[in-house]
Amino acid sequence: xxxxxxxxxxxxxxxxxxxxxxxxxxxxxxxxxxxxxxxxxxxxxxxxxxxxxxxxxxxxxxxxxxxxxxxxxxxxxxxxxxxxxxxxxxxxxxxxxxxxxxxxx
Length: 105
Fold this sequence. Notes:
- By secondary structure, this protein is mostly helical.
- Helix content is 53%, strand content 0%.
- The chain is built from 5 helices and no strands.
- Helix 3 packs parallel to helix 4.
């Protein structure tokens, strides 16, 4: 990963899975989101062009935050605008979370 400081903020299991999935680097929006979400108490609004990495920019720090205790009640919820988009995102997140023993429904 090109940006080690933001990458290093992520949970170890998540970092390991991103390497296994062949991610060469984090995108700029993902770097900014990871830093902000994992190091501050402020709110975040992610806005970028299509295919800029917004989904993972939101999910990587959230998954990192709940990775040590993924079981139990609902830990994170995402509401997507389009069924086709949700299906695509579900497959990507399921691939990421399955290897971390984190259920996705």
